[in-house]
Write a structure and sequence with these properties.
Layout lengths: L4 E9 L2 E8 L7 E10 L2 H7 L15 E9 L10 E4 L2 E2 L5 H4 L10 E2 L11 E5 L3 E3 L6 H4 L2 H14 L7 E4 L3 H12 L5 E5 L2 H9 L4 E4 L11 E6 L4 H9 L1 E9 L11 H6 L3 E4 L7 H10 L4 H4 L2 E4 L3 H9 L5 E4 L1
Helix pairs in contact: 4-5, 4-9
Length: about 325
């Protein structure tokens, strides 16, 4: 490679992002240099840009839903230039107690690309080889950057342990809510109910054959009904409290949506009816299964991608995501 600088977009604070340039990074031992080919716009990105997550400091190139092409390698790696990969953004140390006991997602000194350290809102990105997963030829880069949201969905489903015939409710019609509903149905849950308020997203669920699709703008969920398994994929106070209220005795609830404030819940009900509240975040062990889902198309990723824009139009991509587009991808 002869270039010495790369194009970047950085969040600068105060809900602003700015275009710029930065020196081209160089891979070290065990690392790869990726030409970033596609990045998904996530709700977390919007929360950070809009100032709702105070733990991320500006300036920062965000972007943690990443797919790209290897263009250079450091020593000690097996992948070669030209390899097409998706990226696990969680960079764990591999040495602390959490890593050594099999939970690197809780690494004591771990970083997350695009959240706590530089992400893919730049032309090139250095990543550890161990965080990269080869893509089948039939999987596009736009589809591949959806590996990251799919992996957290699969990890949450592992913790929920859905059983065939079990009624399931997904609160929230964003991309992850849609993936949850589709994969719960594939796991044999019946009926699967998805609630939301965005017509385009609800229509995807109907096309997929989700058993019940509820538009809460005109048809609120029945307050007297109960579910054995619930996914809360919104992260708002009212929907988290609703999930607890709608849970049957002994139900499992995946608290998947990220709230930006403290949420009071009815712990008396949680305790006395033995409701299990399960957190869900990174799940490194599921990545090989994610690649298989992308390869066979069973997660429906292509249906969820609604907008594809060039990297130079990243501000517009953020605006489209804020306006309710199903899934926005920026790509080269």
């Amino acid at each position: 490679m002869s270039a010495s600088a790369m194009e970047t977009w950085s969040w600068t604070g105060s809900a602003r992002i700015e275009a710029g340039q930065a020196p081209l990074p160089r891979p070290g031992h065990g690392e790869l240099l990726l030409h970033v080919r596609a990045v998904g716009i996530c709700g977390t990105d919007l929360h950070i840009v809009d100032g709702a997550i105070s733990t991320v400091a500006a300036p920062a190139p965000l972007g943690h839903e990443i797919a790209g092409e290897v263009v250079a390698t450091g020593p000690g790696v097996a992948l070669a230039a030209g390899a097409r990969v998706c990226v696990d953004p969680l960079v764990a140390c591999g040495r602390c107690d959490r890593c050594r006991t099999g939970t690197p997602q809780h690494c004591e000194v771990g970083e997350e690309l695009g959240v706590t350290t530089a992400g893919a809102w730049q032309e090139y990105l250095v990543v550890p080889e161990r965080n990269c997963y080869l893509l089948p030829d039939a999987v596009s880069y736009a589809e591949a950057c959806q590996a990251e949201p799919l992996h957290v969905v699969l990890g949450a489903l592992d913790r929920l342990a859905p059983r065939p015939g079990e009624p399931a409710l997904v609160i929230g019609d964003g991309p992850t809510g849609l993936y949850f509903a589709r994969l719960l149905r594939a796991a044999g849950c019946r009926p699967v109910t998805l609630s939301g308020a965005t017509p385009e997203r609800l229509e995807i669920a109907r096309r997929w054959g989700i058993d019940e699709v509820v538009d809460v703008r005109t048809d609120p969920l029945d307050a007297d009904r109960r579910w054995e398994l619930i996914v809360e994929a919104v992260g708002r106070t009212e929907t988290i409290r609703q999930a607890v209220a709608l849970a049957a005795p002994g139900a499992r609830i995946s608290l998947f949506g990220l709230p930006t404030e403290q949420v009071p819940v009815d712990l008396w009900r949680v305790i006395t009816t033995e409701i299990a509240l399960l957190g869900g975040s990174n799940a490194p062990h599921v990545w090989p299964r994610v690649v298989q889902l992308l390869a066979d198309g069973s997660a429906g990723v292509a249906d969820v991608i609604s907008d594809r824009l060039p990297f130079a139009r990243l501000p517009e991509a953020l605006d489209r995501a804020r306006a309710g587009a199903v899934k926005v991808i920026v790509e080269r």
